[in-house]
Amino acid sequence: MFREELKYIKDYFRVVELNPWLFSANFITSVIYKILDVTRPFIAAQIIDRLTEQDATGTVHAIILYTVIYVAYRFFLFLNWRTYSWNVSYCYLKLQDKLFNKILSVDHSFKKKVNRGRLLNIIGNDLFEIGEMNDEISELITSIFQVIFIIAISAFYSPLIAIIMAVSVTAYSHMRTRHDRKYNYYWWRSQSENDNYSNFLNQILTGLQEVKVFNLKRPLHERLDMLQKRYDKNYMAQRRETTARDNDIRFIYYPVRAIILLICIAMIANGHMEVGSLVMFYTYHQQLLTYAKNFTDSTIAIRLNDAAIRRLTSILNYKADEKYQFGNLDLDDVRGEVTFKNVSLSLGGHQILKNLNFKVHPHEFVAIVGYPGSGKTKLFDLILRLNQPTKGKIYLDNININEFSKEIYTANVAVANQIPFIFNTSIRKNLNFIDTDIKHQIEACKIAGIHSFIETLPMGYNTILRENGGNISGGQRQMISIARTILTNAEVFLLDDVTTSLDPDTAKLVPGLIQRIKNKHTVIMVTKKPELMRAADRIIVLDHGKIVASGTHEKLLERSALYRSMQTLRSSDSNDLEDEEIV
């Protein structure tokens, strides 16, 4: 049994970053207050014996000693509570940082491979429970010492009673451990089902519009009901083990107490024991089972926490499909020239991009166009270092992008996505994540053309945006996202089809916006809008991962049948598309 607990404790120390001073203080105060707690019945017995002997001086001395021990016990118990709180807080914050840093470093496959419900439950429950485990370790070790100490004192007065106590506490511990192991098994299974339930609920919330449109209430309710029944089955099995454990213990606790009392009474009647010793044994038996309960409670808590640790380590040990290379180059004097040399990309055995060669000059506006599946998004992923080229190199100012440090590169390459992400906080705080300077924020919003709208809101920049900006239009969310990108002051701006969510009137402002941005930055945009293609300095046409044409709008109209077909198709569809996309 102890070998198993030792393994769990080793797992804990491998994951958690402890403060050695706090952990030591918590353990030492626990040892001291528990030793003092064990000595109290012994001193109480001395008080009773001195009273029955009518020894006034001895009684007073024993009472003073008991008072001192009790005050010291309460003092070290208080210190233990405080160090426990500091310890949990320290461990919890460290684990939060570790998990947060891991999430920020994962690849796109993470969301597919990791159960989101499990991740939410780890954040909501497991981190705090793991933080508490250092106290459970102290409780486990000190409870063992308390049991040994009580049996040793009892053996000094009555070896028979000491043997009875040792046998009863062993049987008690074995019985609790047996039920607790089963309880732990069913707890783990119920937690897994709870993860699945939370994950499915999260999926429903994500696709709530489709749920309502297709009237999926009944089949979804059936699925949730099935998950709930599986959870209930394992939860009820947990409760059965708990009930059996607590009732079985009664068959040990009360008969043993009665036997101990009868032995003490017989020894007192024969003059082999004083009344104070009976009180001491009565109290020690009660304490003994309390300490044994603390011991077994700690073992089950450690087992449950080990399950939480395994859930956490499944996230922390997540291996990305590809290893991204980040260098140490901290050169921040970037002009914004982007070059692709013989770049190819293969994923899952399929070639996505094939031998791309092009250069984007500083302060140039280049549009990347092509039909769906042509590789436009993956091209952006390569620039953002979300994927590594299978072949070839990408350069920023003639320096391989893998040589730049992560901090420098992300400071110089920024992206505004097709579907912008907005945090559930104020407009001001959404912008504060990039730059807290209010003047810079207002200037960026003016460039993005969203400042006037923000000023019309009752709370202005302090307006709270619902999750993902649900209380403003899609176009307004996009312009706030673009303003946030402008705030980065990056040298290279990647705009991923940002006009998709804009209404026609707002979309007409985008060419002018891009012209303002490119005065200070390099702009690369994925777009399907003919008006933006026409505004670009140069257009790169992709087809099945290859560059099939490159040049200005006028030249491509002359040379590229594919580009002409895209213009004709987009022009004929644009009115219908825009009518559907009015916000």
Would you write up a description of this structure?
- The protein is an alpha/beta fold and 583 residues long.
- It folds into 2 domains: 2-316, Up-down Bundle (ABC transporter transmembrane region fold); 338-580, Rossmann fold, CATH 3.40.50.300.
- It is built from 21 helices and 10 strands.
- The strands form 2 sheets. Strands 6-7-8-3-9-10 form a 6-stranded mixed β-sheet, sandwiched between helices.
- A hairpin with a 2-residue loop joins strand 1 and strand 2 (350-360).
- The longest helix has 53 residues, at 217-269.
- The chain is elongated and about 120 Å long.
- The two termini are 64 Å apart.
What structural keywords apply?
2 domains; alpha/beta; 21 helices; Rossmann fold; elongated; 4-stranded antiparallel beta sheet; ABC transporter transmembrane region fold; 6-stranded mixed beta sheet
Summarize it:
67% of the residues lie in helices and 10% in strands.
CATH superfamily of the largest domain: ABC transporter type 1, transmembrane domain
Numbering strands along the chain, what is their spatial order in the largest sheet?
6-7-8-3-9-10
CATH topology name of the largest domain, in short, is ABC transporter transmembrane region fold
| Poorly predicted sequence stretches spanning 5 or more consecutive residues | 570-583
The CATH class designation of the largest domain is Mainly Alpha
Write the layout of secondary structure elements.
Layout: H1 2-15, H2 20-52, H3 56-105, H4 110-113, H5 116-131, H6 133-157, H7 159-206, H8 208-213, H9 217-269, H10 275-316, E1 338-347, E2 350-360, E3 365-369, H11 376-383, E4 391-396, E5 399-400, H12 406-412, E6 413-416, H13 427-432, H14 438-448, H15 451-456, H16 474-487, E7 492-496, H17 504-507, H18 510-518, E8 522-526, H19 530-535, E9 538-543, E10 546-551, H20 553-559, H21 561-580
Parallel strand pairs: 3-8, 3-9, 6-7, 7-8
Antiparallel strand pairs: 1-2, 1-4, 4-5, 9-10
Helix pairs in contact: 1-10, 2-3, 2-6, 2-10, 3-5, 5-7, 5-10, 6-7, 6-10, 7-9, 7-10, 9-10, 14-16
